[in-house]
Amino acid sequence: MSAAEQDLDPGFKKELLGSLPSLRAFAYSLTGASDKADDLVQDTVLKAWAKNKSFQMGTNMKAWLFTILRNEFYSQMRKKGREVQDTEGTFTDSLAVHPGQDSALDMQDFKKALDQLPEDQREAIVLIGASGFSYEEAAEICDCAVGTIKSRVSRARIRLTEILDVKGASDYVMDANAASIGSRAYSR
After folding, report:
1. Domain RNA polymerase sigma factor 70 region 4 type: where (predicted)?
2. Distance of alpha carbon 72 from alpha carbon 178, whole angstroms
């Protein structure tokens, strides 16, 4: 016999066991399924067993157990209301976030590739892509024709794609910061 059972009042155990059929019937009326009712009764008995010292012998144990069962049922229902059933993983996949280190490594590679560009191409791609200037504004800053800026940006994009060996969007991962830079760079 365990220490917990030695401390347990024999009358408590007898009343608890005598209440099980009524508890199960009440649990079934709440859940509508025998397996869920059995689980609810088990949870109730475990809680009652753990809190046996708080029960006053001579008072209505059935009412005490029914209160525990009812509270446990509503606690489970509230918890279930906050949970999302996602057996196929569809919802979870939509919440997935790419690890931050991928973007950091991509950015390091991009900086190295950017350093390999001729100065005029690097200047043009940074003004258009990273700084968000229009072609006209970049041409004014570089003191050259708009067509020259467009040509430099185009050559810089082609060269960066070659250096980074980018075949398509699936070759790199963009976090929110990189996505905003990328969308500005390729939207012009």
Report:
1. 109-160
2. 48
